[in-house]
Amino acid sequence: MAYTDEQIHKLNQQFKGIPPEEIISWAIQSAEKPLVTTNFRPYEVAILHAVTDVSPHIPVVWCDTGYNTPNTYKHAEELIARLHLNVKLYVPKQTSSHRDAIMGIPGIDDPRHQLFTEQVKLEPFRRAMEEHKPDVWFTNLRQGQTALRDSLDILSLSRDGVLKVSPFYHYNDSQLDAYLKDRNLPNEHKYFDPTKVLENRECGLHT
């Protein structure tokens, strides 16, 4: 179902303060091809747990840059096993070793940084979305992360018209910590994103 900006605005007003599980259930009921994306960064376990609790077999798209820390890979494997995640793995077409030999990880001011981001994150993501063609996309975007994300809400539309659902949008870290503690869920903070220099920088997936 296609939503207008006005409808999304009204729904966002209704959904503020509503438990994430109810928002997810609403979205799943209206979806034909939903998916959830993850990179197993800090607090990603919340969206993965909440969504799979409602829809256990939903595709979980993981675009692995190839530059995750050992802790993140171990965390990912733990969550995949514990939550029985239906992971669909997408990786760059070039290995990290090959890329390291040619350009390494370019700094933010390096002209090659845009190409690097395209190779390790944007192209695999586009490939995943083209193959799955979702109508509903669950994310763990939250208010206060970046200026762009502050302009979004629980519901928003991607450039391709896909309904993005961020049920934890209004949660802060303390609220998420409580959510994880109540459910005995592990978190992981030794995460590295090679496309970002600063935590509040966008990588391009949500712009």
TrEMBL record:
<protein>
    <submittedName>
        <fullName>Phosphoadenosine phosphosulfate reductase</fullName>
    </submittedName>
</protein>
<dbReference type="GO" id="GO:0019379">
    <property type="term" value="P:sulfate assimilation, phosphoadenylyl sulfate reduction by phosphoadenylyl-sulfate reductase (thioredoxin)"/>
</dbReference>
<feature type="domain" description="Phosphoadenosine phosphosulphate reductase">
    <location>
        <begin position="40"/>
        <end position="187"/>
    </location>
</feature>
<comment type="similarity">
    <text>Belongs to the PAPS reductase family. CysH subfamily.</text>
</comment>
<dbReference type="GO" id="GO:0005737">
    <property type="term" value="C:cytoplasm"/>
</dbReference>
<dbReference type="InterPro" id="IPR002500">
    <property type="entry name" value="PAPS_reduct_dom"/>
</dbReference>
<dbReference type="InterPro" id="IPR014729">
    <property type="entry name" value="Rossmann-like_a/b/a_fold"/>
</dbReference>
<comment type="pathway">
    <text>Sulfur metabolism; hydrogen sulfide biosynthesis; sulfite from sulfate.</text>
</comment>
<dbReference type="Pfam" id="PF01507">
    <property type="entry name" value="PAPS_reduct"/>
</dbReference>
<dbReference type="GO" id="GO:0004604">
    <property type="term" value="F:phosphoadenylyl-sulfate reductase (thioredoxin) activity"/>
</dbReference>
